Amino acid sequence: MSVPADTIELRQAIIDACRSMNTLGINQGTSGNISVRTNDGGFLVTPSGVPYDALTPGGIVAMDFDGTARGGLLPSSEWRMHRDILAARADAIAIVHTHATFCTALSCLRIDIPAFHYMVAVAGGTSIRCADYATFGTAELAVHAAAALTDRKACLLANHGMICLGPSLEKTMALAVEIETLARQYWYARQGGEPVLLPDDEMTRVLEKFRTYGKQPQSEG
């Protein structure tokens, strides 16, 4: 199929990110998926069941928010979840969904990741919620995920994995790595007993500090 020239670079960036997920150890095989909002009012999403090493720019599926897909391949089975989150969150430019090992393990326990570490605030709140369970690819799962992401940038998906959003594909990938790191730390901390949680007032201070965390002043000229 003919690929719009103005999307080729973005399509390749999605492919590179998909391959990077497995290299980074936050995903396995063809599980997981990525979407990115486009300037034409729609979004791009990875296709269903295609090995990442076999992906080409033409295989990334363009979609409208009414569910119309354009291209020779079927979109990810989770396209509804991506569509609903992008529709609900103007701040979401990219979405990364993975079956990261420790996130998935905690999601099978159906527990939130509480404020055991101040970096939990990287997801936008005092905890990382676990969304209610629904069959993969369903509209019900999309509703549960969007609800768990209220005022958050990431959540677990019960008996499934994790999903996160961000202002760019690069930053969303970095957040996915951070969430899996926190899940791993929390899992290990629980092996030694019940972790001591940070109080709400401390997390409020941390969240305020995160408003400017990592932001460098623009260089002159």
Q: How would you characterize the overall build of this protein?
A:
- The chain starts with 7 loop residues before the first helix and ends in an 11-residue tail after the last helix.
- An eight-stranded mixed beta sheet has the order 4-3-2-1-5-8-7-6, with helices on both faces.
- By secondary structure, the chain is of the alpha+beta class.
- It has a single domain, classed as Class II aldolase/adducin N-terminal domain (L-fuculose-1-phosphate Aldolase, 3-Layer(aba) Sandwich).
Which range does the strand content fall in?
A: 5-15%
Radius of gyration: 17 Å
Q: What is the domain tally?
A: 1
Fourth-tier CATH superfamily name: Class II aldolase/adducin N-terminal domain
Helix content bin = 25-40%
Q: Determine the number of helices (DSSP H or I, runs of at least 4 residues).
A: 6
What's the helix and strand layout?
Layout (H helix, E strand, L loop, with lengths): L7 H17 L8 E5 L5 E3 L15 E3 L5 E2 L8 H10 L5 E5 L2 H9 L20 E2 L7 H10 L5 E4 L3 E6 L2 H23 L8 H11 L11
Parallel strand pairs: 6-7
Antiparallel strand pairs: 1-2, 1-5, 2-3, 3-4, 5-8, 7-8
